[in-house]
Fold this protein.
Amino acid sequence: MEKMGRAYLDYARDHPLEYRLMFGTPLPDASEHPEMMHRAKHAFTLLCDALSRKATLQGRRCIEDEIVLDALLVWSGLHGLASITSSSAISALGLDARLLEASHEHLFRGFSRALAGGS
C-alpha cells in the first residue's frame, strides 16, 4: 500500500505537467475513450484490492462499501498532498522545507491509524 502511495506522489512530483493534465482538466466523454476509463477503474480497483488484503491481514471483515470509502480517503489524501505541494500556493505559506519533506511520512502514518480504526 505504501509503495502505491509513494509511486503516486513521486509521479505527481516528477511529472507535474502530466499530473495537472490528468486531474486539472475535465475528463473527455467516457464513451469516446473506453480504454482511458478502463485504466482509471483498474487503478481504483487495485487500491480497493490492496485495502481488502490489509483488512483481512488485520482480521477485520471486508465490507465492500467501507473498502470503497477507505479507497476514497487514501486517494483524496494522496491527491490533495500531491496537488498542494506542487502548487504555488504552498510557497505562499512559507513553511519550513523539512515540514514539507515530512508531510509524506505523516500522511502515511495518518492512513495507517485511520485504516486500523485508531485516531
About this structure: DSSP finds six helices and no strands in the chain. The chain has a mean pLDDT of 88. Helices lie at 2-14, 16-24, 34-57, 64-85, 88-93, 97-115.
